[in-house]
Amino acid sequence: MRIVSLAGGIGGARFLRGLRAAAPDADITVIGNTGDDITLFGLRVCPDLDTVMYTLGGGINEEQGWGRDKESHAVKEELAAYGVEPQWFGLGDRDFATHIVRTQMLDAGYPLSAVTEALCARWEPGVRLIPMSDDRTETHVVITDERGRRAVHFQEWWVRLRASLPAEQIILVGADEARPAPGVLQAIADADAVILPPSNPVVSIGTILQIKGIREALEGKTVVGVSPIVGGAPVRGMADACLTAIGVDTTAQAVLELYGSPLINGWLVAEEDAGVALDGVRVQARPLIMHDVESAAAIARAALDLAAEIARTPAGTPAAPAPEDAR
Amino acid sequence: MRIVSLAGGIGGARFLRGLRAAAPDADITVIGNTGDDITLFGLRVCPDLDTVMYTLGGGINEEQGWGRDKESHAVKEELAAYGVEPQWFGLGDRDFATHIVRTQMLDAGYPLSAVTEALCARWEPGVRLIPMSDDRTETHVVITDERGRRAVHFQEWWVRLRASLPAEQIILVGADEARPAPGVLQAIADADAVILPPSNPVVSIGTILQIKGIREALEGKTVVGVSPIVGGAPVRGMADACLTAIGVDTTAQAVLELYGSPLINGWLVAEEDAGVALDGVRVQARPLIMHDVESAAAIARAALDLAAEIARTPAGTPAAPAPEDAR
Question: Which CATH number characterizes residue A265's domain?
Answer without folding.
Answer: 3.40.50.10680
